[in-house]
User: Fold this.
Amino acid sequence: MAHIAVVAGDGIGPEVVAQARKVLDAVVPGIEATEYDLGAARYHRTGEVLPDSVLDELANHDAILLGAVGDPTVPPGVLERGLLLKLRFAFDQYVNLRPSRLWPGVAGPLAAVKPGEVDLVVVREGTEGLYAGAGGALHRDTPAEVATEESLNTRHGVERVIRDAFARAARRERRKVTLVHKTNVLTHAGSLWARAFAAVAAEHPDVTTEYQHIDAAAMFLVTNPSRYDVVVTDNLFGDILTDIAAAVTGGIGLAASGCINPEGRYPSMFEPVHGSAPDIAGQGVADPVAAVLSAALLLDQLGHPDAAARVTAAVGTELAGRTPGAPLRTEEVGDRLAALSVA
Ligand code: NAD
Ligand code: IPM
Ligand code: MN
Assistant:
């Protein structure tokens, strides 16, 4: 039986992860889960963010379920870089998979878009780009202060994520991939991305392709989200686009993601797109659907597609029964989803 690691993390992380575990236990009883106490509390207690010994232990799991990391009491970047990005990089989770669909019963903000008309997936590069940590600062706190942040793009890294996007598109009905970048300004990285995209596209004559600049894509994602099937893009563009995609499909509380190491050499990690939501943490009102759908992606990855489909269907029933704008209780939604998943 599979053995997963659970990093509940900060803020609403533990609240939503508890519901995801409830659902996992209901649909696939016997998945072993080990909890890892990482995040703001451990940092304050011990000064540790992610000790190497813990990283080694995490490596020995079949997958990781993560809630959210980041807390207002910890300087920005300490946990985000030191824990979350460290995991994504150490486990070579180069495919950051972020599906968005407008579910029946969910009121999206766009009057012109009906449920069923948005079903897209962003394949966000997960280990390079501006997230690589290259750059530096000089003359801090002087008038001459300079800070640089460099975007790292390797042919290997770019090509493999584009390849993943095409493989996914080939398995979908519309078989279309949109490359999103900013080739008109970021001419070095943009050229690399465009040439790698063209090379992989040539191997997939059955897949339709298009290119858009990030600014236009941000606009079209709001004005005409139905035009997208698979979107492949760089790390930072993908971060921003997937919050827009979440907003367009009913909110960040519904948006799931997988940080995937497709070769299976390292564990993949599944987490909601949202963060620790300090503004609502501790109130029991966070929507656990994003965490539960992330658990469904985890089940798929672990070879339980039927269980994943049951969880996804349960979410469909839950959302179809919601009254738009009505308040929810995290635990009650978790209980309902667990029950619906085995009904
Ligand atoms: P956020 O996603 O935590 O919150 C943005 C807004 O969305 C807030 O108003 C919040 O209440 C709401 N929201 C988020 N999840 C929700 C849910 N499940 N149900 C209902 N409402 C929800 O983003 P932020 O405020 O920019 O960041 C807060 C902290 O989280 C920061 O420390 C940030 O670095 C971190 N963060 C972590 C992750 C992650 O762990 N993957 C992702 C994003 C942000
Ligand atoms: C996300 C988050 C992270 C990211 C941060 C917290 C490092 O915003 O998962 O979308 O930028 O990838
Ligand atoms: Mn983000």
